[in-house]
Amino acid sequence: MMAWKPKIIAFTCWCSNSGVDQAGFEGFKYPSNLVTLRVPCSAIVNPSLVIKAFEEGADAVLITACKPFELRRIAPSRITAARVSLLRRLLKTVGIEESRVRILWISSNEGEVFAKEVSEIVGEIEKLGPLDLRRKMLEQL
Amino acid sequence: MSSSEKELRRLARRLLETEVVQLVIGYEESEVGVRPCFIHKPQEAERLVWNPECRLNLARYLRDLKDSRVGVVMKGCDGRALVELIKENQVDRRNVFIIAVECNGVYKPLKYGSLRQERQISEYCKRCEVRLSPIRDYVIRSDGFAFNNASDNDEKPLNWLSIFRKCLRCMACIRSCPFCYCTECSIEGFKPALVHKLVDTMELFTFHLTRALHIVGRCVECGACESSCPVEIPLTRLYRELNQWFKENYNYIPGLSLEQAPPPLVFKERDRT
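^ inputs. structure came back:
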């Protein structure tokens, strides 16, 4: 049997997606079990989609966003931060570890920071173990 | 007949006779307890009742009656729901005459086959602190049934994930909720579909969590969803947990004042996180 590897979905906004690219260009290694999805802005990530990702088998969801103080517009980062905070509270309520939803502030030139942070996150999720939502839902009442 | 019920009927008749309102929404007797009724004529006012069976939220109907002047019987939680609807520009306050009835808690829905004598106050009514609607045009004090305020604090943490599994996806919670008024529901109308009509256990997780996220910060814990649920999922408790987040972060409790705007609608320059 193959060793379990965490499956992580990352919603990356345009700016931080070029940060992810930067990590590739400069040759920094980050774990391969991260799937990046580029979205126009971090504030467009519908919390329902994060929940859907968990339902479909993701072990953790990562949202990377522009740093609030570097962004020209203030609202998107504020919205994302508030949403993630609420989402974590919701997951905690229903009995899922809240550290499975992560937010990462990345600028477009921070490839190295991204690689380092992601490796840390993957390590943490590996410690938490698989989410295994199906088994949790089918547990006896 | 209690005196509050008598007063309610007299008021409804008077309002219709003097044409202050065109329609009064209240509760009437039916085979299984009470049901909502719509009264257009003064002589029909005798149908109105007021008792602990009146657990439906009548604020639900006001959105569909935008163009007429409506008198409506409101409990504390119904009034809070109306406050939120007014803030969301769904109801015009000038068209509504609020008959605020003091509420002492409503009963749990009668289970099929159980006795009528063994009625209990609902769980969410034990937690309730607002007995009278925050906005009102006329107040009727209750004198009838007694209210047992002994709230039991030994609430066990629930295994929500396996509770969600009981869900039949009948959408009764959506139909009864005063805030679920979107014409394009994101649960039923999302393309590609977020939740399908076929019963897949995993999608119940998405369904309930998405609904919770759409309701928090507005939910007034009226218990309409919980009491209409055929499998008795304690939804109000879930929404209450999340309302705590709004209370902690924004000091906002939904439905208490018309002035305080809902936090997601407010933008402050200093909110830089």
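The CA atoms of residues 72 and 212 of chain B lie 28 Å apart. Chain B has nine helices and six strands.
thumbs up if we can close this ticket
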